[in-house]
Here is the input.
Amino acid sequence: MIFLPPSHHVVDRNGSPLARAQLRFRIADTTLALTVYQDPERTSPHPEVVTADMAGRFPPVYLPFATTGVTTYTAECRSAGGGVVYEVPGLALPVQAAAGTPATFALPLAPVSTSGTATIVNLTPATFRGVLTVNASSIDIPVVLPPHASLTPGQSIVVRQSGFGAAVVVQSADGLVPVGAAAYLPLSERGEEATIIATATGFVVVHESLRGPLYMIASRSSSAPTSPPSGALYIATATVGAWVAGRIYRAAGGGGAWIAVEPRPGALAIVLDELVAGSPTPYTWSGSDWVKWSGIIASAQVLIAQVQASSGAPGGTPVYGSWTRTPINAIIENTIAGAALSSGNLTLPLGTYDVEGWRAMSGTMASAVRLRSPSSSLVVRGPSVYLQGETVTVAADTAGNLTTSQSAPAAGDIQIATRVGAAVPFAGRLVTTGADSFQLEYWASQPIGASSNIDLGVPLAIAGEAEVYANLTIRKRA
Here is the structure.
């Protein structure tokens, strides 16, 4: 009997061939190597490690016949880097046939299709081998495995879905795990296949699509949805009944059955019903929790707002000695769902936000700017900015010499006031516990010289362009 690898072909997590994969055979469940052969006559042994070609294909492997002391073996496949692809113990060695009886058998190909009529494929021990191709396109088609007791350990079958739109639902008549705790294994994608191997105690299923690393998730849910589409994937957010928080559950085609999938650390899930700027939300499994990709979410969720005035209009005269509100009056961009501008304030929904911005201040000795919620007292404040300015008296003596001083001007003296301006910055992080309203405020200590209506911004008067006297950029992180 020629050995057929439990996987129809050896691929990595992305479905690409595992070049130079390694196959080892051991006696029973020991660590002792089992000698396998390159020819049906068992005269040319393989090396202890059988290596696949660059396409992930192994050469023919012929198993030794069972002896009184050795009747089973273990097949172990690893990648070229040493990662385990599969390890299947308890496989039966072939029994040497009597004289005149062939020692090998042909593998049957048994395609089944449907045109809308209910179909059930009931496998027997004689048909539990080879490749079974089923076209499930309009209705689910159950494939029922034979009773486990009727099978010889080592027997295997590949069940393949060639249709699309429904599921090939592999069922165990005995309800044996790991075909599924509810004895269901749905194959819903065209070309999806599973290799089912009978062992001494049950069935082993080799099914790469249940290993990740990328899962397209219909939704995250705290409990099993009712009437889910066959083959749909869900992330459990709570441990309720048979569901365990963190696991992925696949709808098993009928009867309310589910297949539990244990994600690997680093696995990626795209949650289709959680949209950010119109795109589904990605999560990564850390080994203990699903972590949202906050870096990507932040780039997609941004709000840019400004304080504007018509071209040539001055910024205004400050109020000194107290925090004073400046109404925000322009939204440049907003992709944060639930964020809005209302009555000069910004409303932000539940979340974590990075905030940065500036406000024009001139002719003021010291100033600061902040974004504050009057209701929750959440605040992002910038530094105190000191602007050096002074008023100088210039006087001429009888000889015509000029002198300067800080004293009050006398008759004939000239007084010069120096005014300094800046864009006063602010930045920080906000964590809101619900929808909250925020307003922009400034503090001005005292004027440099006489106060003026340009102390909150000097206009440029560029034709067709609004004056901008403050700018805020808010990015949602989570």
Residues 99-116, 177-183 have pLDDT under 50 and may be disordered. The chain has four domains: 1-105, 106-209, 214-292, 300-476. The chain has one helix and 38 strands. The radius of gyration is 37 Å.
